[in-house]
Amino acid sequence: MGVCSKLAFTRYVRSGRKPKPDPRLWQGDARFGRVPVRVYRPCGPSAGLRPGAIFFHGGGWVYCSIDSYETICRYIARESGLVVVSVGYRLAPEHKYPAAYEDCLNATIHFMNNAEYYGVDPARIITCGDSAGGNLAAAVSQTLAGRSDLPKLRAQILIYPGLQVLDFNLPSYQQNRGVPLLFRERAAFFALQYLNGDASNVEEVLEGSHIPPDMRLKYRKWVSPDNIPEKFKVRGYKPHKPHEFKAEVYETVKRFCEPNLCPLLAEDAVVHQLPESFILTCEYDVLRDDGLLYKKRLEDNGVPVTWYHLEDGFHGVISLFDYYGFRFSAGKRGLDSVVKFIKGL
User: Fold this and answer.
1) pTM for this one?
2) Is residue 131 annotated as a catalytic residue, yes or no?
3) Which of 58, 112, 174, 195 could form a disulfide with 131, with the two C-beta atoms 3.0–4.6 Å apart?
4) What confidence tens digit (pLDDT) does each residue in 255-282 have?
5) Catalytic residue among 103, 285, 289, 290
6) What is the β-pairing status of strands 83-87 and 50-56?
């Protein structure tokens, strides 16, 4: 109708409803430098400084906001008894990579440096995110892993994270290519929008023409169906041979191989310094295998990992644990598994 763009309309639809105030929580908006955040703090008494979590929302780096995740962040803060900071990072395609990553990193550093002001123990801070937010949480955790001027992160929580864009033909991508809420084609589309705001090469990326053979061979030790447990391959998986390499496409997407965008490609020297980790995966999710591959990488490098797999889960199910009257038990179980992990730290 010409009223607004498709992007603006979809963002509006995904903005979420504004729930009534929760008397059990104090919340307020602030800015960490130039990055908008929303802080959720339990109202009950505390024997000392609380643990804290900095949360990065999903939405393919393109959609969603602090408002979209109000219910989830309230639930985590209320049920875990910790302070949650939700980050309103800049979105693509208006703000291309590394804008979102930089916002999340800067907000995390600010929080760590000012934790006590918010009643938080700086030695008990967690990074947390779902989907694209899980990507950002993993990237931020890797960047901070070797920092000696900041407290070490206590943990990272990655909820069906997207962690690589080399191979869109892993078993989970084949098996769940048409399963809502994230289709295979949309996963590549979002990654390209985040990278450079242009998804014109989506077909070449889906078929694997965007990665040079030598680079694909280099990263095969980390991104390969060979590292996926056999039980996840029985449901209609067929090995895929990448199409002929196209150098001109690689030139437009070569930053895909940066660990700040693809955390699965970080070197072992970085990975082994990461904090205790929680990874949630869903059976019916194209990103399932990203989580499984990262789980293996962490374990191979001696990082303690708690893995929770939703056999009946699909991408985005956490956001639907209580959504306009829709309630998916898998979403509630997944969210409760996150709370349980936090309480056990």
Assistant:
1) 0.96
2) yes
3) 58
4) 999 999 999 999 999 999 999 999 999 9
5) 285
6) parallel
